[in-house]
TrEMBL record, chain A:
This is Oxidoreductase. Keywords: Signal. Residues 64-138 form the Oxidoreductase molybdopterin-binding domain. InterPro entries: OxRdtase_Mopterin-bd_dom, OxRdtase_Mopterin-bd_sf. It comes from Litchfieldella qijiaojingensis. Residues 1-20 form the signal peptide.
TrEMBL record, chain B:
Residues 663-761 form the HPt domain. Its EC number is 2.7.13.3. The keyword Transmembrane applies. It comes from the Bacteria. Residues 240-457 form the Histidine kinase domain. It catalyses: ATP + protein L-histidine = ADP + protein N-phospho-L-histidine. The lineage of its organism: Bacteria, Pseudomonadati, Pseudomonadota, Gammaproteobacteria, Oceanospirillales. The modification 4-aspartylphosphate is found at residue 528. The chain crosses the membrane at residues 12-32, 175-200. Residues 479-595 form the Response regulatory domain. This is histidine kinase. The keyword Secreted does not apply. It is an enzyme of class 2 (transferase). SUPFAM superfamilies: ATPase domain of HSP90 chaperone/DNA topoisomerase II/histidine kinase, CheY-like, Histidine-containing phosphotransfer domain, HPT domain, Homodimeric domain of signal transducing histidine kinase.
Length: 167, 761
């Protein structure tokens, strides 16, 4: 167990080194997420734009959980929030998350660092479309950490995410 | 009144507790409802939010449709996609559940969803094909969207109305609960105030009660103080009265003493004897009362001095030996050879205790023997034991013996005079001397009183209280000055002293005494305390101040026996005290003390030795006392006495012990008395048997058993024991046989005694 943790740290360190060493790649497909604000890696002006491929290249996670908006347990998959933060070299304390319908919520950076929050791209193996609250849906691991199921966290669970501003 | 108060108190307490619990429960319910409401509120907000968003999205799509010609077609399609996503929220999750549960605008919702789905194919067909968006299509879409808008508006309004009504309901319930809590709090407060009132009332009552108790205890303390004062006054009265009685009694005793030496008729001698006995009885009673009063007052002072223990005991025993000079009663004194010659202790108190015990023994023993045994114990202790074969004391009475004013029973009190203070005084004296006292007794067999006190041995010292001049010796003629104002007492003292062979000079007061002492030589002075002109203390002080050659012994004559009076005498320079009333013997004893110094180390006369115990004392001391029989000696066998040897009939050990410790004549006397009484016992028992008085028979057998075993007549003791055991139950013929057996044993015992040379006739 300890060894796995050590290994994880090592991998994480090497990965961050690699990311830091390389310039952020440019999106080849349609841009689905743009990150702005206090970041160090850009690929479009002072913003970082991501297409589906780039997001799939980040560290992925599967989260099995119930939500107030679905029936039964649902399996979500997508990049870890903190891997996204690493990828853009974020240095702020909070994020302004904006949805396609211009709904916006403020999420503390700490939420992404302390919990395994993902930007879900698929649900039960099927890619999330806009009509399914896609393309990106911030999913907290409610079943793993029942303490997260509160009003505050629920307002932070933004769906149809299109942009994040690091503050 | 009191019980209804307490009932009310209990009811109020119960009510308070019930109200309190109810308040807590209602509070809990309110809290729980609040929690529920928080969740419900969130849900209701969500519902309103989602329906609002749905409605808004329809509006957005309509706007996009209008703009679609000029702007991007994709934006309109995205809007549609978003609108589509809104319908999901009504189809699953919490919002869907809410809508289904409360059946809110379900028809409109179903229609709206169906409409959105119907639009789906039309919008999907437009993807990337702006050319298809004709004016007619646009108008058609717009028309459908208007219909949808109407539905969503209705949905929004109905949801909002539903949520509002639920919130009102919830608020009303909560208000009701708050009202209940308020009422409960009011009830708690009212019961609480009732309780507080009750507590205040109770504490006031308690304080009243405490005050009352305090007052009562003060009264009690006062009563105790009064009682103590009364008791004190009584003691003082007794002391004063005793003292007042002593002074005239001095005259009575003295005159009786003198009268008995006068020649007079037989009748006259008898009268004088009665007078003497009555007077000394009265004197004894007064002495007891004074002693006890002093002991109770705690003013007992011990006067520890070295004295010759053996000489003291010899003197003491000599008197009792004379008293026992008749056939039925013998007195023996046994001294342990290990006793130290000289010991330190209060010889007068020791004499008092011993005389008390011995006098008791003589009082209650008409025949048999009385033995005083003195044995050295560990660590300087000396144990004195007085055993008698008297009437004995019942076990149930024994514990009362040492209490004041208790004689064993009233019948004994009638037969024997006494205050009943003797043993109480003995006990207190022995305790004061640092020892302890005890007794064992068996009814009908005898008693044994003992006490043990520390009498540490000392190196040879000038003996006091014990004289080298013994009773038989004549005193050397000394010049004795008697200082006394009372003419009767003058005569008395002169007569007594002259009979003791002394030369007497009399002075009427202290002044005369000093003149006499200056004029002629005197050897000793007897000084009264209270006199006109110059009292005894002052006279002594003046003489001591002017005394030029040698120390003149001055002895106080006083009826004041309290320690502080003694102290005054010694402080004034007196040497000794003789208590009034005194007898010739008392005078003799005190004079001898001072004459001894002149007799010095002269060899004691032969008669002195003859007074001490003639028996050798080298055997262990505990074997020298006739053992009290142990209760219930079991018979060794039931065989008849036909073939018994001497050693079976007599217990050789006890016989040897008797021979060791008693004179031959004494032993013979004991056995002949025993055999004589045995005949009488048998006759009595025979009568009892014939009359069927079996209980008396059993007691008689028990008594015979005790008497026989203490004299070592073992066979007789065994027979008596079995008779005792069988007396109540065996048949008459069997008992008759046993009685006959006793007769045989009597003969056998007599023969054995004769052959053992314990009996001559």
């Amino acid at each position: 167990m300890k060894r796995h943790i050590m290994l994880g740290i090592l991998v994480g360190w090497v990965a961050s080194f690699n990311v830091a060493a390389q310039e952020l790649a440019s999106p080849s497909g349609p841009v689905i997420l743009s990150v702005s604000g206090k970041i160090t890696h850009f690929n479009m002006g002072n913003e970082a734009h991501f297409d589906r491929e780039m997001l799939l290249a980040l560290e992925q996670r599967k989260t099995l959980t119930h939500t107030p908006w679905h029936d039964g347990q649902v399996r979500f998959e997508g990049p870890l929030g903190r891997s996204l933060l690493e990828a853009v070299g974020a240095s702020g304390t909070s994020m302004r998350v904006v949805a396609l319908d211009d709904y916006a919520a403020t999420v503390p950076v700490a939420d992404f660092l302390d919990h395994n929050v993902i930007l879900a791209m698929s649900q039960d193996g099927k890619p999330l479309k806009v009509r399914d609250h896609g393309p990106l849906f911030i999913i907290y691991p409610f079943d793993e950490e029942p303490g997260l199921l509160n009003e505050e966290t629920l307002t932070r669970s933004v769906w149809q995410v299109k942009a994040i501003e690091i503050r | 009144m009191k019980s209804s108060d307490s009932l009310r108190f209990k009811l109020t307490s119960c009510a308070a507790v019930v109200f309190f619990l109810s308040a807590i429960i209602v509070g809990g319910i309110i809290y729980y409802r609040h929690q529920l409401e928080m969740v419900a509120n969130k849900l209701m907000e969500d519902v309103v939010w989602v329906t609002y968003q749905f409605d808004r999205e329809v509006r957005e799509l309509r706007m996009a449709l209008i703009d679609a010609s000029v702007t991007d077609l994709d934006a309109m399609l995205l809007r549609y996609e978003i609108l589509y996503s809104r319908t999901h929220l009504f189809r699953r999750g919490q919002v869907a559940e809410f809508v289904n549960t409360y059946d809110v605008a379900s028809d409109e919702l179903r229609e709206a969803i169906a409409l959105v789905e119907a639009l789906d194919s039309q919008f999907l067909a437009l993807a990337g094909r702006q050319d298809l968006l004709t004016t007619t299509l646009r108008a058609g879409l717009a028309e459908q969207l208007v219909t949808l808008q109407q539905l969503t508006e209705t949905i929004l309004l109905e949801c909002n109305a539903q949520v509002a009504s639920m919130k009102v309901d919830e608020r009303e319930t909560l208000l009701l609960l708050y009202a209940a809590v308020l009422v409960l709090i009011l009830l708690i407060m009212s019961t609480g105030s009732v309780l507080v009132m009750a507590l205040i009332k109770e504490s006031r009552e308690r304080a009243d009660k405490a005050n009352m108790l305090k007052a009562q205890s003060r009264e009690l303390a006062q009563a105790v103080a009064n009682a103590e004062a009364a008791s004190q006054a009584k003691s003082e009265f007794m002391a004063v009265m005793s003292h007042e009685i002593r002074t005239p009694l001095n005259g009575v005793v003295g005159v009786a003493d003198l009268l008995s030496d006068e020649s007079m008729s037989q009748q006259g001698h008898q009268y004088v004897q009665v007078l003497k006995e009555s007077a000394s009885g009265l004197q004894a009673v007064i002495n007891d009362i004074l002693d006890y009063t002093k002991l109770e007052a705690g003013s007992l002072d011990l006067d520890r001095r070295p004295f010759d223990l053996k000489a003291f005991l010899d003197q003491l025993c000599a008197g009792y030996r004379l008293r026992s000079e008749n056939d039925d009663l013998r007195f023996h004194c046994q001294l342990d050879s290990r006793l130290p010659d000289h010991v330190e202790g209060d010889v007068n108190r020791l004499r008092q205790v011993l005389m008390n015990l011995l006098n008791n023994a003589f009082k209650f023993t008409t025949e048999g023997i009385i033995v005083l045994k003195v044995a050295a114990e560990a660590e300087g202790g000396v144990k004195f034991t007085v055993s008698d074969t008297g009437c004995g004391i019942d076990a149930s009475q024994q514990h009362r013996l040492f209490e004041p004013f208790s004689q064993v029973d009233t019948s004994i009190a009638r037969r024997h005079e006494g205050t009943g203070l003797g043993l109480a005084i003995c006990q207190r004296l022995v305790t004061a001397m640092g020892g302890n006292i005890g007794m064992e007794s068996q009814l009908g067999l005898g008693s044994r009183f003992w006490f043990e006190i520390p009498l540490p041995g000392v190196e040879h010292e000038v003996s006091e209280g014990v004289s080298k001049i013994t009773n038989g010796d004549r005193l050397p003629p000394w010049r004795v000055l008697v200082v006394e104002d009372n003419p009767i007492n003058q005569t008395l003292a002169r007569a007594m002293l002259e009979q003791l062979g002394q030369l007497v000079i009399v002075a009427g007061n202290g002044q005369e005494a000093l003149e006499t002492l200056n004029a002629e030589r005197c050897d000793v002075v007897l000084m009264d305390m209270q006199m006109p002109v110059l009292d005894g203390l002052e006279t002594t002080r003046r003489w001591r101040a002017q005394e030029s050659q040698g120390h003149l012994p001055i002895i106080a004559m006083t009826a004041n026996v309290m320690p502080e009076d003694r102290e005054c005498c010694f402080e004034a320079g007196m040497d000794d005290i003789i208590c009034k009333p005194f007898k010739r013997e008392d005078l003799r004893r005190i004079l001898t003390q001072y004459m001894d110094e002149f007799v010095g180390d002269a060899t004691p006369s032969g008669s002195d030795r003859s007074l001490s115990d003639p028996m050798p004392l080298d055997t262990p001391h505990d074997k020298r006392v006739v053992r009290l029989p142990e209760p219930g000696i079991a018979p060794k066998s039931n065989s008849t006495a036909v073939s018994l040897s001497t050693s079976d009939v007599l217990d050789p050990e006890i016989v040897a012990e008797l021979q060791e410790s008693l004179d031959r004549e004494v032993i013979e006397g004991l056995f002949s008395t025993y055999l004589t009484r045995l005949g009488a016992r048998q006759a009595n028992m025979q009568v009892m048997l014939e009359q069927g008085d079996r209980d008396s028979l059993r007691q008689a057998a028990h008594s015979l058993k005790g008497a026989s075993s203490s004299l070592g007549c073992a066979a007789m003791a065994r027979a008596a024991s079995s008779l005792e055991q069988l007396a109540l139950h065996d048949d008459v013929s069997s008992l008759q046989r046993r009685m006959a057996e006793l007769e045989t044993l009597k003969t056998l015992t007599r023969d054995s005694l004769k052959s053992a040379r314990l009996l001559t006739s």
